[in-house]
Write a structure and sequence with these properties.
alpha/beta, Rossmann fold, Dihydrodipicolinate Reductase, domain 2, 2 domains, 7-stranded parallel beta sheet, 5-stranded mixed beta sheet, 8 helices, elongated
């Protein structure tokens, strides 16, 4: 069986480097393009991530990399400012997008779903590729059937651009599928400091913590009379996301249209 040809956008970033290393170390995958947005960084992608030279030079032109590399899949870990345009370019060239970057509206997802179906290709937009994090979301959604009073607290480093995180939003969406909207707390509650109770979603609150030295954690806290339940997931290293990225690369080869959420690839 031929190997899946992979391009990586955001290859010079922290997540992108891990994807490059994972692809280069996997016999079922082949790195054919590595794109970064830092001028003057035209070096061998393998050498850049601390491995042996692989013959793929880092590029700053995504479209040219897609045309010349002819990848089957584009893995994108860039920024919310560039990811929508990157996804459009990938689909234009019939390259299956695997997107780990936030910044999509529901309308964007619908639009790209239609385009993928027209091109006869699959794609994935996933806020989180950690299998443990996906299980945390699934468990939380199930628990919400029995513990409808809850709050989400997510923790990330102080350089993260979006709040709440894509993982927290996806968790909230899954919970809302299993729980009717319920306004929690005292109806006369007042915030003496604006925003102290967090963001409101479907009647419950989401809190975002941003501190240096923090990597990525999330907990969902459920409360009921006489008891509480906490479901928490902690990520300590970006390499922990790579098994999920590989599953996504393989699975999008079997789908047509955009899949939103990595949980659809976990039985």
């Amino acid at each position: 069986m031929s190997r899946i040809r992979v391009a990586v956008a955001g290859a010079s970033g922290r997540m992108g480097r891990e994807v490059v290393k994972m692809v280069l170390n996997d016999d079922e995958l082949e790195l054919v393009a590595a794109v970064n947005y830092s001028s003057g960084l035209e070096v061998d992608a393998g050498r850049f991530v601390g491995l042996e030279p692989c013959g793929v030079t880092m590029s700053t032109d995504l479209e040219l990399a897609l045309v010349e590399g002819k990848p089957d899949v584009l893995v994108d870990f860039t920024t919310p400012h560039s990811v929508v345009a990157n996804t459009a370019l990938a689909i234009k060239h019939k390259v299956r997008p695997v997107i780990g970057t936030t910044g999509f509206t529901p309308e964007d997802i619908e639009h790209f779903d239609r385009q993928c179906k027209e091109q006869g290709i699959g794609g994935l937009i996933a806020p989180n590729f950690s299998i443990g994090a996906i299980l945390m979301m699934k468990f939380a959604a199930q628990a919400a059937k029995y513990f409808p009073h809850l709050e989400i607290i997510e923790y990330h480093g102080d350089q993260k651009l979006d709040a709440p995180s894509g993982t927290a939003v996806k968790t909230a969406e899954l919970i809302a599928q299993h729980r009717e909207e319920l306004r929690q707390g005292n109806p006369r509650e007042q915030e003496t400091i604006e925003g102290s109770r967090g963001g409101l979603y479907n009647g419950f609150r989401i809190h975002s913590v941003r501190l240096p030295g923090v990597f990525a954690q999330q907990e969902v806290i459920f409360g009921a009379f006489g008891q509480s339940l906490k479901i928490r997931h902690d990520s300590y290293d970006r390499a922990g996301y790579m098994p999920g990225v590989k599953v996504a690369i393989q699975k999008v080869m079997e789908y047509t249209g955009i899949v939103y959420g990595f949980e659809h690839f976990i039985d």
